[in-house]
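User: I'm putting together notes for a lab meeting next week and I want to include a structural view of one of the chains we've been expressing. I don't have a solved structure, so I'd like a prediction I can at least talk through. The sequence is below, exactly as it appears in our construct file.
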Amino acid sequence: MERLEEQFSDLHVAKRSAMKDNITYILDIDVSSPAEAQNNQTVAILCSDKSIRLYNKETMTCLQEYNAHPGVLSGVRFSHSNNNLLFSACSDGTVKLWDVRASGSEAVQIFNGYPSNVFISFDISCNDLVVCAGTEKVEEDSFLVFWDARCSSDSNSREPLGVYSESHNDDITQVRFHPTKPGLVATGSTDGLVNVFDVGKDNEDDALSSTCNSDSSVNVIGWAGKDYNQIYCLTHDEGFCWWDLAQVETDEPITLCKVEDMREKVTSCSIDYLIGGLYHDKTDSLFLVAGSHTGNIHLLSCESDKLTCLKSLQGGHSATVRSFYWCVDDNSLLTGGEDAQLLLWKLKSKDLSPGKKDSMKMASSLQQRVRVHNSNSKSYSTKPKKITDF
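Assistant: Thanks for the context. Below is the predicted structure for the 390-residue chain, given as structure tokens.
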């Protein structure tokens, strides 16, 4: 913990990139996997003007922009195995796959949802075989929609494998696959529930392996702990919950920590909101990243009996910070916010700116295990495309 605290305190703004429109918010950040040459890493950001922009991480120069989105975007994710492929989800009921090497602005693959789907969350499994997206509540239903994630040369349009539709009863705000087990996916909703599914099971009821209740609206979820057997949750009213799923089959309580309002719990620094979580596997420690409306960023350590503000970063942003990405390979930090600034923080730097393949059986077998949704009361009659078993 001391090592990360020291690293965080030594961070300074190394590069700064301003948006063309100074009222554009940066809502999400993802970074491609480290390449042999560090300067080849690409940063993808999701912007409030319905665009996705790509940057060279070292120079912070803009490389590409995708802006042909008819709806609100809900996230960006690089492929785990191919740095040239980028996924995004949209409220128009599609997940799109982009090839960052292409000079054009057209998606190379479109994953279509069912009619009336509005996607507000999504993720891709750690082996890049399955995409899952969560929807807003439509009448009485909320859906988790699944696709075979592999790019097909036959058509640039892909239909769903099927859906889960019975485990949440409100907007599904978060979808997070397990970092090392491709069959596990966690979901969070404004109904307060955080569910964990094993999509290798025969049906949705059997797939639902764990349910944790935050008693609030779920904003952010993530995996933590050795072997990633823990789940943490940040709520829309700045609450924090932390559960140990390894204790589900024991007599021990699964709740490690539950705080209704972090703004009242942490008194050593001024917190206005929570941004996200960070599990540091080298120290087996969970940290939270919080912020103030003036642009300050705070690193909080999490232990079962206390929450402590370790360090604060000041002088970078001038408004609310919406997103961050911690690069474990070089201990750098990317942040973006409502001041239309994308910042690269590095150790002991000065502010230089003036103003092998996995088994292919999982996706095809998943088609047999997720229920194809078909409701006479709504226009969900489209059948998922049949995919041949491998």
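A couple of points you could mention at the meeting. Residues 75 and 88 are 6 Å apart (CA to CA). Residues 68-213+356-390 form a domain with the Methylamine Dehydrogenase; Chain H fold (CATH 2.130.10.10).

User: Perfect, that's what I needed.
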